[in-house]
Design a protein that fits this description.
The chain has 99 residues and is mostly helical. It has one domain. Helix content is 67%, strand content 0%. It has five helices and no strands. The chain is globular and about 40 Å long.
């Protein structure tokens, strides 16, 4: 991520300007955007590992909870295709994570 950080920020800034984050975060504020982006990054990095230790599972729990805090509930017809379903609900179910 570090080597592509500047490009990532430029791309995400365009999403912000277009109002995308107003739909996929609770508030659309920079704090929620940063929390959501960081949480997704951590979740994906842990999921890419071959083995998840208890320590990594705790970090995964914290990242999922952070994403939960920043993410909206989504409309009923959107939920199954949402990042909330994929990265919060399903990860909690699969790894039996606490809230």
């Amino acid at each position: 991520m570090n080597e592509n950080l500047n490009q990532h920020i430029k791309e995400e800034w365009q999403h912000f300007l277009k109002g995308t984050y107003g739909l996929c975060t609770r508030s659309g504020l920079p704090e929620d955007i940063a929390e959501k982006e960081l949480a997704i990054l951590i979740i994906n990095e842990i999921l890419d590992l071959d083995f998840i230790t208890d320590e990594r599972k705790e970090i995964l729990t914290q990242a999922v909870n952070l994403l939960d805090k920043a993410s909206p509930q989504f409309a009923p017809h959107e939920r199954l295709r949402s990042s909330r379903h994929r990265l919060i609900d399903e990860i909690r179910r699969k790894f039996k994570l606490s809230y």
